[in-house]
Design a protein that fits this description.
Layout lengths: L1 E6 L2 E4 L4 E9 L3 E10 L6 E6 L5 E3 L7 E6 L4 E6 L8 E12 L2 E6 L3 E6 L1
Parallel strand pairs: 2-11
Antiparallel strand pairs: 1-3, 3-8, 4-5, 4-9, 5-6, 7-8, 9-10, 9-11
């Protein structure tokens, strides 16, 4: 079993910054891509940013230039540095990881979500 535990959410004023962390633990052989998604009330979950095991990144257009995704492979942890936050960034943020638990078995795992609220 694999667990993803997120931390770092909270309430911040517009223009402020937050840093989210997500640590994976459990029966991990290796971790492939990791990413952050978000879901605002009444909206579908959407991709925020992803990062491959090799460090290649991808961002939603709405966060480019403001958010930075990074990972520490030794700690099985992915981060999301969020700067210049806007009220429209308010959402529950979810961590995602593609985890290989044996050489023949890989699965997608999700964290429990962490609330980010940006006040205007």
């Amino acid at each position: 079993q694999v667990q993803l535990v997120e931390s770092g959410g909270g309430l911040v004023q517009a223009g402020g910054s937050l840093r989210l962390s997500c640590a994976a633990s459990g029966s991990i052989f290796s971790i492939n891509a990791m990413g952050w998604y978000r879901q605002a009330p009444g909206r579908q979950r959407e991709l925020v940013a992803t990062i491959t095991a090799g460090g290649s990144t991808n961002y939603a257009d709405s966060v480019k230039g403001r958010f930075t995704i990074s990972r520490d492979n030794a700690k099985n942890t992915v981060y999301l540095q969020m700067n210049s936050l806007k009220p429209e960034d308010t959402a529950v943020y979810y961590c995602n990881a593609g985890v290989t638990i044996t050489p023949l078995h890989s699965y997608d795992y999700w964290g429990q979500g962490t609330q980010v609220t940006v006040s205007s």
